[in-house]
Amino acid sequence: xxxxxxxxxxxxxxxxxxxxxxxxxxxxxxxxxxxxxxxxxxxxxxxxxxxxxxxxxxxxxxxxxxxxxxxxxxxxxxxxxxxxxxxxxxxxxxxxxxxxxxxxxxxxxxxxxxxxxxxxxxxxxxxxxxxxxxxxxxxxxxxxxxxxxxxxxxxxxxxxxxxxxxxxxxxxxxxxxxxxxxxxxxxxxxxxxxxxxxxxxxxxxxxxxxxxxxxxxxxxxxxxxxxxxxxxxxxxxxxxxxxxxxxxxxxxxxxxxxxxxxxxxxxxxxxxxxxxxxxxxxxxxxxxxxxxxxxx
Length: 296
What we know:
Elements: H1 3-10, H2 15-25, E1 56-63, E2 67-79, E3 82-93, E4 99-102, E5 105-116, E6 121-131, E7 145-155, E8 169-180, E9 187-197, H3 199-207, E10 218-231, E11 240-250, E12 254-263, E13 274-283, H4 284-287
Antiparallel strand pairs: 1-2, 1-13, 2-3, 3-4, 3-5, 5-6, 6-7, 7-8, 8-9, 9-10, 10-11, 11-12, 12-13
């Protein structure tokens, strides 16, 4: 049930190839449009991570019947279309497998490779590297891992006026694969797809109505997760399917996100059929504008 910890362990593929492709594409990209300065409307970083490079810090976690976890994520832009990030997580298992410890540190680079404003579509590529400094008692790998992350966000701004209410929907995805650089073969595939519907966006850009201030910051969403080891030192190669309904409260600075994670098959219910997941995030450049500075 600890999907964010699985992400923290697994976001790493073709390190040099990915960076090479990203840098080759960068000169052809227009600078991404800035989000509305009065308010953010969409989530983008609950179970997966956002395709948009940003100056951002979040603390998130999960709690289920016999396990709990926490994850610290920090991201800093290095240009208008790229960023570097670091994540560190801690894991606790109860019951017969009682153990508490830190997972491996994870480093990531994110580069926007496609931006289509007319279709409200953004695609980013992110090579990752996992350093083996964690506690093996909680499942941290003793081997260096490398991989790649493919992230996208798609809005519906192009739908006709007769279906204007659909413009408040947004789709986001986070798809990645990782593998051991050394040691025994271990490959993990993870995907997260999120459907969101922003009440604030609907009221400001579609209906033009004024709603309660608190309600205007709400964005309900539904996440679908799939994870599977294609090869592993563990004793299971079974897929893991989970469904997470949630709701976020978002303004231009803060994000508070709460969800209930529901296991859809036997592998996903090993630590309980239902888990609780949460996230608190801060847009750093809105708190301290100087942090929006980029070297490139």
